[in-house]
Predict the structure.
Amino acid sequence: MSTEQFSHTFWAPAPPGRIHAHLSRPESYVGLSPLVVAVRDIRRTDQAVSYVAVERFRFGPLSWHNPIRVTMTSPVPGRRLTSDVRSPGRVHLVATVDLTPEGEGTRVTEAVTVSFPRLLRGFVLGQARSVQQARAAELVRRMTA
């Protein structure tokens, strides 16, 4: 297994509480993450929200649905959200989103640690970075609307 880490920081035009509330709802990830087409089996406890997100990968005319298990926690309510993601392909991703008030909005930093089988390195890192960038752009769009 290989492990990589990377992060992305951007500014969003909304207060941290509004962004945190949006990101805390599993349903928000449909379309927020460009691969996620559905969420199901949502279970909430006092400490976490667990669910299955369905990712759709397209390979020309073919598509593949990948159910991933996600557990979200909020170690710093309103300011930090952590998602622990497990994929059937032995891919394990932990994303931590930190929200810091900045001017009339929020500085958002998402740090990602991803572990994967070495043979999948290019695919996993390409998808993870691409999704991270798209998710940032979509979150800004949603907070602007």
Summary: Helices lie at 16-23, 29-32, 121-144. The beta strands are 2-12, 36-44, 49-59, 62-76, 80-87, 91-102, 105-116. DSSP finds three helices and seven strands in the chain. The longest strand covers residues 62-76.
